[in-house]
Specification:
With 274 residues, the chain is α/β, with parallel strands linked by helices. The protein has one domain: TIM Barrel (Alpha-Beta Barrel), CATH 3.20.20.450. Helices cover 42% and strands 18% of the residues. It contains 11 helices and 8 strands. The chain has an 8-stranded mixed barrel, surrounded by 5 helices. It is globular. 39% of the residues are buried. It holds the Pfam family EAL.
């Protein structure tokens, strides 16, 4: 539903001790919004999909990023209604975009706390919005599957049976094990930005990325590289056969209106800096 990343300040006008009360207010008064970071086909430059990113709009100050409030949401149980709102809103938006434009896919992060109820909340969102399940991709962290692999595999198999796509996020940063890939019905691997950033600097990082891509393709999975910020990274990933990329080289996260404008173009390509 939202990535933790590196902790950041809570935001102007938001006191840490008030976060729980303000999050409850945000749920009641529509103070959340979604941003969308394009995922681009490395060979064609065409827009393939987008990752959904949550933003909180407090009563005062700038929008607040997830690292500042997700820990509180998880500790208080508010992660469940917030996550359901994200999934329902993303599915509804995707359904409208697919109805009016070319087929399009949105990727939604599913937090470890949501994982045990994933089938229930995903099925409810799909039924409510009418979205084609194949247009939804759920991004699962390694943490979600590491603690109980058999149980996690069961959850993912049931999600897969619904027709949604499944992505293993931040691959290689935590509990990576080849047995996960052999036992989980995953369609996509996402290469963590730390490996992408290191590719230009070190041969080891390049070899790691190259072998992740080769492994994924051997298992009939697509590969998304996160945090692509330079033409050099893009060109190297393209030569290595990576399928998709997202990052500031292509676009910062966009408001829904701007993403919709991209989708209405005859050939929705995303221009890069080089």
């Amino acid at each position: 539903m939202a990535k933790r990343g590196t902790p950041v300040p809570t935001g102007a006008g938001v006191c840490p001790e008030n976060v729980e009360a303000l999050l409850r207010d945000a749920l009641q008064n529509d103070r959340f919004t979604l941003a969308y970071q394009p995922q681009v086909d490395l060979q064609t430059g065409q827009l393939d999909g987008a990752e959904v990113l949550l933003r909180w709009l407090p009563p005062t100050g700038a929008p607040v990023l997830p690292p500042a409030f997700i820990p509180t949401a998880e500790a208080t149980g508010l992660i469940h209604p917030i996550g359901e709102w994200v999934l329902r809103t993303a599915c509804g938006q995707t359904h409208r975009w697919n109805a009016n434009n070319r087929p399009f896919r949105l990727a939604v992060n599913l937090s470890p706390r949501q994982f045990s109820r994933a089938e229930e909340i995903v099925l409810a969102a799909l039924r409510e919005t009418g979205l084609d399940p194949g247009r939804l991709e759920l991004e699962i962290t390694e943490q979600s599957v590491a603690e109980d692999l058999p149980a996690a595999a069961g959850v993912l198999r049931r999600l897969n049976a619904l027709g949604v796509r499944l992505a293993l996020d931040d691959f290689g940063t935590g509990y990576s094990s080849l047995q996960y890939l052999a036992r989980l019905p995953v369609h996509t691997l996402k290469i963590d930005r730390s490996f992408v950033a290191g590719m230009i600097r070190t041969a080891k990082a390049r070899i790691i990325v190259e072998n992740i891509i080769r492994l994924a393709h051997g298992l009939s999975m697509r590969v998304v590289a996160e945090g692509v910020e330079t033409p050099g990274q893009r060109d190297l990933l393209r030569r290595q056969g990576c399928d998709l990329a997202q990052g500031f080289l292509y676009s910062r996260p966009l408001a829904g209106k701007k993403l919709r404008m991209l989708l209405t173009r005859p050939e929705p390509c995303v221009q890069t800096a080089g």
